[in-house]
Design a protein that fits this description.
Number of strands: 5
Distance between the termini: 76 Å
Helix content: 25-40%
Strand content: 15-25%
Order of helices and strands: HHHHEHEEEHE
Oligomer: single chain
Radius of gyration: 32 Å
């Protein structure tokens, strides 16, 4: 008898396996459902931590140095709200600057916000003879008229503290930077958890 004949005459392992599955289908279904339930019970304990402490061993000199730095200063995080005109062009128009003003006012309402930086509340310094005047670049929508908008553009694009930080070099994008000083009570604390 040839090998081909022996192979053809014996039922294949796959066919036997299939017959067993069909014969004991209720038992197999029960085992599959029980396995799915058992594996899903632990899912509530699965999570992700953005705390860098979890990535270092507990007696880490890096963590000790960071703890010392945070005890002297404060645990802070930032949120950056980017604002760009829908139709392209620069941000130096009444609609976008009004949006900056509104976003700046609303950013102060974010829990733990300790500082908000934007074009509207930039402390602009103007020299008149021996006097220095420090004021917001603009405070209200009523100030957003032609010549004032030109002045805002000139100051924003010429000021190194604003360029590529609050306004892009080409003036097509701006933003509001919100600095949060978190209380540091929970290792799961991140700025995103306060925005929900």
């Amino acid at each position: 008898m040839s090998i081909e004949t022996q192979i053809a005459s014996q039922p294949s392992k796959m066919k036997r396996f299939t017959e067993l599955l069909i014969r004991f289908r209720y038992v197999v279904t029960l085992i599959v459902v029980a396995t799915c339930i058992a594996t899903s019970l632990g899912q509530s304990r699965v999570g992700f931590s953005s705390d860098y402490r979890y990535y270092f061993g507990s007696p880490s000199p890096v963590i000790a140095a960071m703890d010392e730095l945070e005890s002297d200063y404060a645990l802070s995080d930032s949120i950056y709200i980017s604002i760009s005109p829908k139709s392209g062009g620069t941000v130096f128009n009444k609609a976008v600057l009004s949006a900056v003003l509104h976003a700046t006012e609303e950013a102060w309402k974010v829990p733990y916000a300790t500082r908000v930086d934007s074009l509207s509340n930039y402390q602009n310094t103007v020299a008149n003879d021996d006097d220095l005047t420090v004021a917001h670049l603009f405070k209200s929508e009523s100030e957003l008229i032609g010549s004032n908008i030109d002045y805002i553009r000139q100051v924003a694009l010429a000021e190194p503290m604003l360029e590529n930080r609050i306004v892009s070099q080409n003036g097509e994008h701006t933003g509001v930077n919100v600095v949060l000083t978190l209380p540091g009570k929970s290792p799961m604390e991140t700025s995103g958890s306060y925005l929900q």
